[in-house]
Specification:
This protein is an all-beta fold and 119 residues long. The chain has no helices and eleven strands. Strands 2, 4, 5, 6, 9, 10 and 11 form a seven-stranded mixed beta sheet that branches. The protein is globular.
Length: 119
């Protein structure tokens, strides 16, 4: 099991940028696929972006394609989410998640970081 700690959230105006970080401890991050999810008030948690252990594969929700970029630094055991051109509808708690390469689901989660985009 790994422990995940997100940081970098905050309040930003529409059109602005934020960079979220997810620090991983417990096991080398290179053994995990990583992802970001988000949950807005009154809504279910939704997928945002994912990255393979090697960084060769990435995927994004249609709502963030072209605006968000997921990346990872296995040497630093950290995953990032660069968010540009933020919109008020991006307001949510953002969660980092890890999936062991032998598993089919993301089973390790961070506590979340709040992102608020004002119009």
């Amino acid at each position: 099991q790994v422990q995940l700690v997100e940081s970098g959230g905050g309040l930003v105006q529409a059109g602005g940028s934020l960079r979220l970080s997810c620090a991983v401890s417990g096991r080398p991050i290179s053994s995990y696929a990583m992802a970001w999810f988000r949950q807005a008030p009154g809504k279910e948690r939704e997928f945002v972006a994912a990255i393979s252990w090697s960084s060769l594969g990435t995927s994004y929700a249609d709502s963030v394609k072209g605006r968000f970029t997921i990346s990872r630094d296995n040497a630093k055991d950290t995953v990032y989410l660069q968010m540009n051109s933020l919109k008020p509808e991006d307001t949510a708690v953002y969660y980092c998640a890890a999936r062991a390469l032998t598993q089919a689901r993301f089973t390790s989660w961070g506590q979340g970081t709040q992102v608020t985009v004002s119009s």
